[in-house]
Automatic annotation (TrEMBL):
PROSITE patterns: AMMECR1
Protein name: AMMECR1 domain protein
Organism of derivation: Caldicellulosiruptor obsidiansis (strain ATCC BAA-2073 / JCM 16842 / OB47)
Keywords: Coiled coil
Molecular function in Gene Ontology: ferrous iron binding; oxidoreductase activity, acting on single donors with incorporation of molecular oxygen, incorporation of two atoms of oxygen
Lineage: superkingdom: Bacteria
Coiled coil spans: 275-302
């Protein structure tokens, strides 16, 4: 098995870049090298994992069109059209194996395309790598898929399935993980700057240069999230295809001329591994969650136990645990409870003003609400409980502000109001770095047009427990 990490900025294609692509010469040279290697390897099937294909929370998109097509018209290039034969036997085998593993596959019908504004056409995450590959080699069938928002274990298992399904059909396969690294490398870039951007890219590239694959699973999820990358999950699917084998990885290029990191890397199978990487990933997750549970304070513990009790008994916790503090029993405040699963939001519900007789009961109610009544998510199930991580925010009473100069998105949360419309955003959220960003999000939640409508602003502080 051979795999590659390939970037996908459309500007790399000369017909689109019109000279700008020359600023990425190291990437272009590396892509040519990869295309030459693929032509020599002669795969019968290429599976491409694209972050810009439809991405679902708990199901892997899998393209089941007999002919998978795409073009560059979106970028003003009307003569370049791509068409690849799909291998439907492999597609069905992937779906079958996923069902056996308890993983969901999402086929997108014409009806779903219209309903959710998604497409089975080739996206730029697939088109850009395929553009360079097909300049050297075209004799392959294509599997077009994406990752989803499940944990590292399930991403890895999906990669295992991709390989098994290809090999079961007796085909010689190759897997491409499409993805760019941090989108926040420069203040002048389209996505701005975050200090985590260069840090994440430097760490990932160093690990790949040293073939230190196992250490990739030690990278802090907060670091990768704040770096605003779109390639790490693709890589984690790709790595699953090498389960049971040692991996040699080589970095052919890395650069970030437009404020976004582009890395071209290869992954080669090198003999049997001394131990299972899948087992190590499972163990690391268990150890991380154990550390989190051991360090829970009274607020977090009460939120967790309240939701667990409700899931198992379908009624609110009807007693106050003895670890609850005197302050939690005597004081009243608005409370927000946030739930995350595998680093992704799983539910968040709160109250601006207290609705219960004390903070403890406010936490009990809002923990259940976050797990069951957040309209963005399905209800939490019992088999998820061990994977959930909680934050509890205790709110100060809101106060009106007369100027945006009185706001600070790291220190203050905001409430925006216009008539009966109201939106709230907590402070110090990942990816919210400016007052304008904070107000725009709060207005969007309230249904207020930030640009054209006047609105009142209030601020508040939080006491955060996590």
């Amino acid at each position: 098995m051979v795999g590659y990490l390939l970037p996908h900025p459309p500007v790399l294609i000369p017909e689109i870049g019109r000279g700008e692509e020359k600023k990425c010469q190291a990437t272009l040279n590396a892509l040519e090298k990869v295309a030459d290697e693929i032509a020599e390897y002669k795969p019968e099937v290429i599976a491409i994992i694209s972050p810009h294909a439809p991405v679902f929370s708990n199901a892997f998109f899998l393209n089941d069109k007999p002919e998978i097509t795409g073009d560059l018209a979106k970028w003003g290039v009307y003569g370049a059209k791509f068409s690849f034969k799909n291998n439907l036997e492999i597609v069905q085998e992937i779906a079958k194996m996923c069902a056996q593993e308890g993983l969901a596959v999402a086929f997108v019908s014409d009806k779903l395309q219209k309903r959710y504004s998604v497409s089975r056409e080739l996206d730029h995450g697939a088109l850009v790598p395929l553009y360079f590959i097909t300049r050297r080699y075209k004799d392959f069938e294509l599997i077009h898929t994406s990752y989803c928002m499940l944990d590292d274990i399930n991403l890895y298992k999906y990669g295992m399935i991709l390989r098994k399904a290809i090999e079961k059909q007796g085909k010689k396969g190759l897997i491409v993980a499409s993805g760019d690294l941090s989108h926040k490398l420069s203040y002048d870039g389209p996505y701005g700057f975050a200090k985590e951007g260069p840090e994440f890219d430097r760490l990932l590239v160093e690990l790949l240069q040293g073939s230190n694959i196992r250490a990739l699973y030690d990278i802090d999820p907060v670091l990768s999230e704040n770096a605003a990358e779109c390639g790490f999950r693709s890589i984690k699917v790709l790595l699953g295809a090498f389960e049971g084998y040692s991996i040699e990885s080589k970095v052919y290029s890395y650069e970030g001329p437009f404020g976004v990191g582009y890395c071209v890397a290869a992954f080669y199978q090198k003999g049997e591994a001394s131990s299972s990487l899948l087992e190590e990933i499972v163990q690391k997750k268990e150890e991380r969650l154990k550390r989190i549970r051991e360090n829970e304070d009274e607020y977090i513990r009460l939120a967790r136990e309240s939701l667990e009790y409700y899931v198992r008994h379908r009624r609110y916790l009807d007693y106050i645990p003895d670890y609850v503090t005197e302050r939690m029993l005597k004081e009243r405040a608005g409370v927000f409870v946030s739930i995350k699963k595998d680093g992704n939001l799983r539910g968040c519900i709160g109250t601006i003003f207290p609705t219960q007789e004390n903070i403890a009961k406010e936490i009990i109610r809002n923990a259940v609400a976050a797990g069951f009544y957040d309209p963005r998510f399905e209800e939490v199930t019992e088999d998820e409980l061990d994977s959930l991580v909680y934050d509890v925010d205790i709110l100060s009473p809101p106060e009106k502000v007369s100027s945006k100069d009185q706001l600070d998105p790291k220190k203050y949360g905001v409430i925006v109001r216009k008539g009966t419309r109201q939106g709230l955003l907590l402070p110090d959220l990942e990816g919210v770095d400016t007052v304008e960003e904070q107000l725009k999000i709060a207005c969007r939640k309230a249904g207020i047009d930030y640009e054209s409508e006047d609105f009142e602003i209030e601020r508040f502080t939080v006491e955060r427990h996590k």
